[in-house]
Amino acid sequence: MKRKLLSCAVLMALVIVAGFENRLHLGTATAAQTPGAHAGVVPMFQVDPTWPKVPAKWKLGDASSIGIDAQDRVWVLHRPRTLPDDQAAMAAPPVMVFDAEGNFVQAWGGRGSGYEWPEREHGIHIDYRGFVWIGGNNCPARALPGLKAVGDDQLLKFTQTGKFVMQIGHSSKSTGNADTQNLHQPADAVVYRKTNELFVADGYGNHRVIVFDADTGAFKRMWGAFGNKPVDLDQCPPPSLNAVPDGPGPQQFSIVHAIRVSNDGFVYVADRENRRVQVFTTDGKFVKQLVKGDVPFARDLALSPDPQQQFLYVGGGAEIDVLDRKTMEVVESIKGEGILGGGHQMAADSKGNIYTAQTTRGLQKLAFKGLSPPSSR
Fold first, then answer.
1. Cis peptide before 52, with omega less than 30 degrees from 0?
2. What is the reported pTM?
């Protein structure tokens, strides 16, 4: 088998491309296919060009986020209101579920009674009990077509059939980073099984990690960059930085865009515009960080599913970096022809496959193909 960087042409996730045999080196060791992580090797992946199979009656808008449930079904959150006018009548419900082979399972979501659906869908997470968490990142000054001029300051919790369970926060009610009742355009969320706590990357308007009880929604704690007290700097639309200065970076987060909690209790936070990943304990104590200021970095995160979770995937502009989770050193990169990019949000399933939501560029599945020595990069 040739050990090359991935070369498999995929323009959008629905375009079928056959005949490619090359493999991409990548960095995840899976519990299902390897007994443990092995020093000096990284996994290989190949684009699955047949994934997903969207029913012909529907069109997907910008694909914003990906979640994986206990059955390895893939939950896609997209933005139906981004479709052009001539396709609006074919808009799929915002929550779409597929199996690992790309077969359609179910769909639901959107405005309803008893809750405030986000104006601009952003993040989806399926927790260990099967509940579905959804948030958005609209702010009034975005003035986007078809959206109300309100702030997405809430997170919603549903069952897997779309039954509403709970809402944390309310639309346009945030009073800033000191507010423990409301979010402010939350980008991502994850429930940590060992404590049943909801960790939120909050986000675009606020600049903090905030933690709630996943059952009651009660506030637990929060922190900013380096464990500092978060400070208000509400910018709408949010900034998009072309470069960052050398050094450790600002003492405050910019856009807190993605969050993951490892099995051994470390919190990984993607500070997107500051191009860094910061690591904390679950109590908010700063541990270390990785900054890559010369290129887009820290857009999205995923953990490898092996028992040690040896690898952390970090999406950038045109590639996904593979980090040794313990050392935070880059050991490999996913890049090359056929890669849609580093992704907007991503997730890994129990077999090691990686799924990315690329907003305007669609969806992509990277199928795990085994372990190999790393490329020369």
1. yes
2. 0.90
